[in-house]
Design a protein that fits this description.
There is one protein chain. This protein has 437 residues and is an alpha/beta fold. It is 40% helix and 21% strand. The chain has 14 helices and 16 strands. The strands form four sheets. The chain has a five-stranded mixed β-sheet with strand order 6-5-4-7-11. A five-stranded mixed β-sheet has the order 14-13-12-15-16, sandwiched between helices. A three-stranded antiparallel β-sheet has the order 1-3-2. Helix 6 packs across helix 14. The longest helix has 25 residues. The structure holds zinc ion (ZN). The site of zinc ion (ZN) has 6 residues, from loops.
Length: 437
Amino acid sequence: MHRSWTGSRNGGSTSSNRSAGTPADQATVRRSNLSLVLRHVSEYGPRSRSVVAMETGLNKTTVTSLVGELQARGLLKEIGPQHAGAVGRPGLALALDGSGVGALGLEVNVDYIAAFATDLGGRVLIDRRVSFDAMGCDSDRSLTELARVIGEAMAELDLLEVRVAGITVAVPGLVDTATGTVDVAPNLGWYGVPVAEWLVRAGVPPNVPISVDNDANLAALAEFTGGVASGTSDLVYLTGEVGIGGGVISGGRLLSGADGFAGEVGHVMVDPSGERCGCGRIGCWETKVGLAALVRMATPDHAYGMHDGVMRDPEERLAEIELRWAAGDPRVDLAIGEVGRWLGRGSATLVNLFNPRVIVIGGYFAKLADRLIPVAQAELKRLGVEGSVARCDFVASDLGFGAASRGAAGIVTERVLSNPTAIDVRLAAPAPEKERE
Ligand SMILES: [Zn+2]
């Protein structure tokens, strides 16, 4: 059973049991009631029609009709008798089916493409990372490789008889989510790249919806729905990579902002007399806590490619830092401590703004969490508003570098839960009964 984020920006369901006038209104009511029933069983587990009716406030006849349609779409199944209480006949329990419906998430990052697929019940079907030097080639080459990874994944899901309900691609940059175009992804060197359109031209079937989103926002959703802080409705996610990504979940919703650009914490100015950032500004948070900053401080003899904001094989660099730290290199220890302090300073601003319960740190931050967290927590305590920081803890993500692709698949699942009619009725399935209100 998976937790869903209620009322997400992608149009969370609105339950409605009111009668409606025009056919368009009726279709809308029907859709939101289908979503209500599907989401209810998804969140609370198997239960009978009468229990669903009681708990959702829909009438029993309506629930029977809605369940019939959800069965026809391959989203619910009957699993056996279940007693609703001490008295009365047992009803057949309904469970999420969805084993034939898949969600595919991908992440394009500086040095890899990740693919993650689940069925609607959350069973992991694909979880892999392909090494790929996205910085070393143009966007067309990267998209060709992305299309290849997608094609391979879809062929595998096809063999498993899983229909792909949608594809979401995570990208480290600013994304126009309405058109699936990456406005700018500086670390990939992408400017105005129409990813969704490109993938359709590359052969992704037109009946499979494609969306594109910011990687840190998707990772924040993954943390909220299935990570260490799962279910914490106010959390901030920070990922340390070459740059810094951030996502804010507030009241169970991802903050996206007017253009979907919210959470660009890496370019919040923290030091007016600091260094120039890859974005061209001075003293961005990223220049203090990005992996490039750590490498520069910890291993100045190896600080390469810093001047243009570009850095190759970040994981290799991190591995070397971890090795030197384990060997007791004092300079490395000091450098990690300095990153921890700046991590706490920047986070104090976020805590004052958003009052989160948890700050989940991912990417390279997670790998150095034992050293970073005590320092960051102390700095947070020193600088944040007392009441908020007293109830806010740093925790290390355990989702690894796959968090964004996991969140990307989660978005697809969420869309199906929000609109079950996006999944076609299966051939030879019983027609849904006429709905009565
Ligand atoms: Zn910047």
